[in-house]
Specification:
The mean pLDDT is 82. The chain folds into two domains: 122 residues, abc type-2 transporter like domain (abc type-2 transporter like fold, 3-Layer(aba) Sandwich); 193 residues, no CATH class. The chain is α/β, with parallel strands linked by helices. Helices cover 66% and strands 9% of the residues.
Length: 374
């Protein structure tokens, strides 16, 4: 083996990389972006959890407890309601993740040395979130209990802990992690099939000169885009149904809502994702460029959608970015249908967001793949 020949081949490869400035930029930027996303997104210390309170006491004890809940930024009281049904409805719609019922006469019962039971409705679909929320509630109640007991001891009276928290886990009381993860796995599989496979489709034809033959036909750009996406749409549907069936049979993942509604959600998400793949493939010159471009789309979807890491644990700026991630809306709606059993009326926002995403990406895909050599 001659080192001069090895150096010559290595030099040739470096020159090839220099001739592809897009790929070179992605190679440099992608690792840094992954590190930043991973560093900021992976945070299980949740903050600013939206909390709804039904304060039937409205006295000094209940008001002190609300202040304790908000003091360290763990919870944000976003709604004050007047009934348990309203608490449940807010959690169904994900406008609140925890609902707290404070019974009447808290101050009088504490003064009389009687215990007070506090009921907390916790969104238990995500076991990690449910655990963190219960810990935060227990800490706030514990701090107020310590103050109340200290005050009674100064008055020369002994008293057991006056406040007792009783959490009620909704949707997934068994803490079945698979029930939370299966909708996310469906979303990831659909993203992989739709974006990555279609992202390579047109680029492969560019490299094999098949694109020139397509351009010579009377097929219009919109027709060509639909023809490209239909096979992958079918494959994605089959895979989605297969994962849902295995999740149901093997992991006992519930389907509390409408299967037709879920399939409509899958259709919207897949169609938009397929259009993303078409845009990528229409603009990339090589398959390597297409692969890296799909990673730029795919990785933020994993980190910022709430698939593995709770959005409530991310910095506020990063939480704002999550509203641009289509997978976030798919997961919110899919988990709503499968775990919470809600209907379209409770999922109008994620469905509208996915519909807008799909329309915009299909339009962009058609424009990106004009009937000309790209």
């Amino acid at each position: 083996m001659r080192t001069s020949r090895v150096r010559a081949v290595a030099k040739k490869e470096m020159l090839e990389l220099r001739r592809d400035p897009i790929l070179l930029r992605v190679i440099v930027v992608l690792p840094v972006a992954m590190l930043l996303l991973f560093g900021y997104a992976v945070n299980f210390n949740l903050r600013h959890i939206p909390l709804a309170v039904w304060d039937r006491a409205n006295d000094r004890i209940s008001q002190a407890l609300v202040r304790e809940l908000e003091k360290d930024g763990k919870f944000d009281v976003v709604y004050r309601v007047s009934g348990e049904d309203e608490l449940k409805r807010l959690i169904d719609r994900q406008q609140a993740r925890v609902g707290l019922e404070l019974p009447p006469g808290m101050l009088e019962r504490v003064r009389a040395g009687q215990g007070v039971k506090l009921t907390a409705l916790v969104d238990g679909s995500d076991p990690t979130f449910a655990f963190q929320a219960q810990v935060g509630l227990q800490k706030a109640v514990g701090r107020l209990n310590a103050r109340l007991v200290a005050a009674r001891m100064l008055a020369g009276e002994a008293q057991p802990l006056p406040l007792a928290l009783e959490p009620v886990l909704l949707y997934n009381p068994e803490g079945n992690t698979a029930a939370f993860m299966v909708p996310g796995i469906v979303g990831i599989i659909l993203t992989q099939i739709a974006v990555i496979l279609t992202g390579l489709a047109i680029v492969r034809e560019k490299e094999t000169r098949m694109l020139e033959a397509l351009i010579a036909t009377p097929v219009r750009p919109g027709e060509l885009v639909l023809g490209k996406v239909l096979p992958y749409l079918f494959i994605a549907f089959v895979d989605a149904l297969l994962v849902l069936w295995v999740g149901r049979v093997v992991f006992a993942v519930p389907m509390r809502g409408s299967l037709a509604l879920l399939l409509g959600l899958v259709f919207l998400f897949v169609l938009g994702s397929l259009a993303v793949g078409i845009v990528v493939s229409a603009r990339a010159r090589t398959q390597i460029q297409a692969i890296f471009a799909t990673l730029v789309y795919y990785l933020p979807s994993i980190f910022l959608s709430g698939l593995f890491f709770p959005i409530e644990g991310m910095p506020r700026a990063l939480q704002a970015v999550t509203y641009l991630i289509p997978l976030r809306y798919f997961l919110e709606a899919a988990r709503g249908v499968m775990l919470r059993g809600v209907g379209l009326d409770a999922l109008l926002v994620p469905f509208a967001a996915l519909a807008l995403f799909t329309v915009l990406m299909l339009g962009l895909a058609t424009l990106s793949f004009r009937k000309r050599l790209l």
